[in-house]
Amino acid sequence: MPSVTRRQSGKLPPPRLPKAHLVAAPNDDEDNIMDGDLTELEDSASSLPSSESEDDPAEESDHSEFDGNDKRPAKRRKSNTPKDGKSPKKSKAAAPSKPASKPKGPSRKVQGRLQNMLAMPLDVLFELFSYLPPADLLSLARTSRDLRKLLMSRNSATLWKTSREQAPGLPAPDPPEDLSEPAWANLIYSPAVCSVCSVKNIHRVDFALRRRMCTRCMKYNLVFAVQFKSKCPGVNPIVMDLLPYTHTGGWAHGHSSNSKFYWRPDVMAMHDKLSEFKDDAKALKAFRKERLIIVDTIDAAGYEKWANEAATARNNDYYSRKQRRREEITSRLVAAGYEKADIDHVRFTHIPGVNSDKDLTEQAWKRLKPKLEDAIASGRIARLAEQRRETVKERTRTASAHYVDFWRTCLPAMWFYLPPFSWVPSLPCFKEIIDREDDLPTDAWTVALEQLPLNIAEWMKRKRNEHLAMLPVSVTNSASMEPILLSNPVAAVKRQERMRGYAGQLELVTSVFVDGIDKRAIIGRETCHAWKQDRELSFSAAGAMSAAAVVSALRLDPNTAIDTQLDTLDGRLICLNCLRDNDVDDLSVYSWRLCIEHDIDMLNSDTGHNQPQWRALEPEDLEQVKRRESVLDTPRSNETGYFCNHCSAHAFDYHPFYHMPLRGNLQTKEMVIQHLLVDHQISSPVEEVDMLYMSRVGMRRPFVKPVIYRPRLAVGVAVPLLGSYLHT
């Protein structure tokens, strides 16, 4: 196949060869004028372009960019000669040359459309330029030499002033007397770069020194007034009176102080300037007077205040434009049929194009709409899920509050049996309301409160039967466990009976259960209080055997004795197995609850306690032991857990923030006794009748520590050992 060059195939774009008269050596002076700082206005006579200028734009437009014809210059054919010098093989047939394709890019007819702009009348140009802000005028002045001469002329001073006054934002103050309008615009509207090293993001303008300075340049160029002689040797300190100064040093991090800092290049320039008046004292005096006036009239604080206010106004305007764009997006989405709740739930700021301060155009809306629709679709699912969680939380909070109100109306002794607050959402009357997807009827809570006592009774009955089934002889109790209210006359009877028979056989002392975690004994009514926790309880055969022995030793019937009876009797016992097996003279005296825990520990170990055997102390010995207990083990007078059994004054408080009851309303024993005396006129309250103790769920009731006891079996008399030690 014949080889084809890129020029023949038309794939090679034509080279842009400038005409010889357009390629000229740059003029350093003119470049410096065009690219330098805009400081002073030039004379109008020398700066305005002349109609007979040699660089007439109209004359230049008659010349083509190329050499007079429209054809591209011929490209040199690529050489196919290999590096080894051998001539390549010639192709049999040469490919016909194809016409070169047109280059891509803007048409040459569009290029250079504004090259005759300066030929327009000046009043028309100034009218057009007056609509430009100062920053755009600065950029326009740097585009070409002719525009720079035009905009830097004194005839353009009014144009700069008009542009400054019409600039958006807070109006800028008039420039100082020693600065022209272009120089003032260059100072306050130029890009945020350092005036020395061009470091970006230098937004603060030091109006005293008329510069934007980065921290590095400030540290290098600022001269502290106290260190002037050492930093500027050979310079007369009088120079400081003729120069402006700033109160912000290089190490001050933008904070002002009372110190004075001078710009080193200004110091050296003023030193050179003063040397020019060495032989002219009169001119030096006039110059100094002029400089003193300029320094005194510099209002840097006023300009700083304006700059801060202008920055605040720009930020407010920036955020207001962004807010308008978001509102426009929201209104369009609402018009498209989306719900306002779904739109507000989605944070659009992470989507590119939303968090912008530009006006929303149709083209931008076409790009944004698919992204917004996807975000709203996923956000709607999240919003509905969150709304559902909040609804469930609010309904659960309301159900708990209603349950607390019901709790207060019950006989306080019922608090041992009632469901825990964690079970409130699971009660059928409340669960139906909480799980409901739609809005609730107006009487939904009223109906639920009517069903609440029945649901509580069913829950307590189910718990009772579950634990009755664990006993060695399965017992089924079909009796109802309806909640007893304080307003019910039956409450007084149940109070005097100490709730006997309410939980059936579970209230017997021989119904001993063991916690599956810490293996502590749970006896009698404590089982009803323990079923509030999530732990599983198991029946303890060893505990039941020990309880029967303890009850028999206290001369009671194991088939009918309940825990409240033994608490009222409050006897003390010694373990005969420990006396026989260990052959010791000193034994521990236990309360009836500790007797059962002692046997559970011993029967489950290899200690020989095969059959529990206990002996109760005689009344005279019991009195001495209790007296010794009061000496060795001070009662816990500050132990909270007691409450009145006649009213709900000590009921649980419900905390709306934690959505749970608090146990903090239970009182000490002395405080409850005082309450019974003052509010119920009961001077001699009986525990388990007038007041009750409730431990925390999963915690044991505080017990009296055992006292060391020395039996004197020879004479058959038991005497407590005085001066003994506590057995912990």
Summary of the model, kept short:
This protein is 41% helix and 7% strand. The chain has 728 residues and is an alpha+beta fold.
Structural class: alpha+beta
Please tally the β strands and state the result: 14
- Radius of gyration, in Å, reads 50 Å
How far from one another are the termini? 109 Å
Adjacency order of strands in the biggest sheet: 8-6-7-13-14
Number of helices: 26
Description:
Helix 17 (428-434) packs across helix 18 (444-468) and helix 21 packs across helix 24 (592-603). The protein is elongated. Strand 3 (512-515) and strand 4 (521-523) form a beta hairpin. It is an alpha+beta fold. It starts with 5 loop residues before the first helix and ends in an 8-residue tail after the last strand. The protein is built from 26 helices and 14 strands. The chain has helices spanning 6-9, 28-35, 44-47, 57-61, 122-129, 134-141, 145-151, 157-165, 181-189, 215-221, 228-231, 264-276, 281-296, 300-335, 340-345, 362-409, 428-434, 444-468, 490-496, 526-530, 541-553, 563-569, 576-582, 592-603, 619-632, 669-679; strands spanning 222-224, 261-263, 512-515, 521-523, 537-539, 572-575, 587-591, 614-616, 642-644, 653-655, 660-662, 691-693, 707-712, 717-720. It has a five-stranded antiparallel beta sheet, sandwiched between helices. A three-stranded antiparallel beta sheet has the order 4-3-5. The protein has a two-stranded antiparallel sheet with strand order 1-2. Residues 14-37, 39-73, 90-95, 656-662 and 712-728 have low confidence and may be disordered.
